[in-house]
Amino acid sequence: MVAAKPDSLATYYHSSVASDSLSDDTLQATLIGDYAGMLPCSFCDSISVTLNLLPDGSVIKTNIYENPETPRVPLVEHGLYRQDNDVITVVYDNQDIEGYSIQNSHLIMIDDDKQPITDYTLARK
Known about the structure:
This is Copper resistance protein NlpE N-terminal domain-containing protein. With 125 residues, the protein is of the alpha+beta class. It has 2 helices and 8 strands. It has a single domain (6-124), classed as Lipocalin (Beta Barrel).
């Protein structure tokens, strides 16, 4: 997960959302849907991730830990997303921030320098 300073990026994000309409057709038409992937895990076989991008600009992310060393409940996070050209920025309710590069029908997580993290790729369902 890429974390950023809540007082800077989150403030920018929330002020941008306030000034732009989330019903913008370019945001809605290309991104709405479910994206999924299997990610590496240090304490389990893998993590099944589903990212649901909803028409109202909200997002739900679910992490299911496959065969963890100790039992874990799925992690469900809620937030808002915004598209800027070929990048999606997600701000979760806990103020964690993630960025994804849009590549065809895939979302690839990017680091703070906007470089792709190739182990973290989600495909449109």
